[in-house]
Specification:
- The chain has 233 residues and is an alpha+beta fold.
- The chain has one domain.
- A 4-stranded antiparallel β-sheet has the order 4-3-5-6.
- Strand 3 and strand 4 form a beta hairpin.
- Helix 8 crosses helix 9.
- The N terminus and C terminus are likely disordered.
Length: 233
């Protein structure tokens, strides 16, 4: 498991200097990915697990890349995507005011009915950092309960065994795609002299945030999924 620990965080700086990573391949700014970078370091929950779960929960095509989306909500198994946090907040508040509390919000689709009381406001629940931090803490508790990340991933979605098993398979395919993307990105790097490597090491320390330099993993490795609520009823 240590091999995967923060795999995205460690590999992404190398991608920034890969010749294959032209300007047109750079990811658009993504609040979920930025939050994953921060919270993985903060909590030691593996970044590839967080990234794969976020893709499963809210993944959508964005500028030619398949990425998680922060302003998403799932109501009765139907995913909805908004352009701003304000629009998502208005939708969530309207549902709450209508006594409809069973909805999921944010990068990690935290359920309001079961977890809303853990947040001071709906806006806090929607916030990518708060949403990701809560998801990471929940996964950590589930890992302690079941003894493995595989157990935690399944239980994150459902305590029903067959639902959890199906969810784990989707997340596993995303993790495999992420690992393949990282490996291919590393192979694409040109060979450097010792002097170049020293220069690159200095540059890595000043590398931009994850969302600014990474690439989404190859189309062949992607899995097109709907929101988890609609796919795994």
């Amino acid at each position: 498991m240590r091999f995967f620990q923060n795999i995205i965080l460690k590999a992404v700086f190398a991608i920034a200097f890969a010749t294959a990573a032209g300007a047109s391949d750079a990811l658009p700014k993504n609040a979920c990915i930025d939050a994953i970078q921060i919270i993985s370091r903060e909590t030691n929950v593996p970044a590839d697990i967080l990234f794969a779960i976020a893709l499963t929960e809210t993944g959508k095509s964005q500028h030619g890349h398949f990425l998680p989306w922060p302003w998403a909500i799932n109501v009765s198994g139907k995913g909805e995507y908004f352009q701003t946090s304000t629009a998502l907040s208005d939708r969530a508040v309207a549902l709450k005011n209508a006594s409809r509390r069973n909805f999921d919000v944010g990068c990690f689709q935290i359920n309001y009915r079961w977890h809303g009381h853990r947040f001071q406001t709906i806006d806090q629940m929607i916030d990518p950092i708060s949403n990701t931090r809560y998801a990471a803490a929940f996964l950590s508790r589930l890992k302690a309960e079941g003894g493995s990340w595989d157990y935690a991933i399944g239980a994150y979605h459902s305590r029903t065994q067959h639902h959890a098993a199906r969810y784990r398979k989707v997340v596993a395919k995303h993790r495999k795609g992420i690992s393949k993307w990282v490996a291919e990105s590393r192979q694409a790097r040109p060979k450097h002299s010792a002097l170049d490597n020293k220069k690159e090491h200095r540059q890595i320390k000043q590398a931009p945030p994850l969302g600014g330099v990474a690439q989404s993993y190859p189309k062949a490795a992607r899995l097109s999924v709907k929101s988890a609520g609609s796919l795994f009823k």
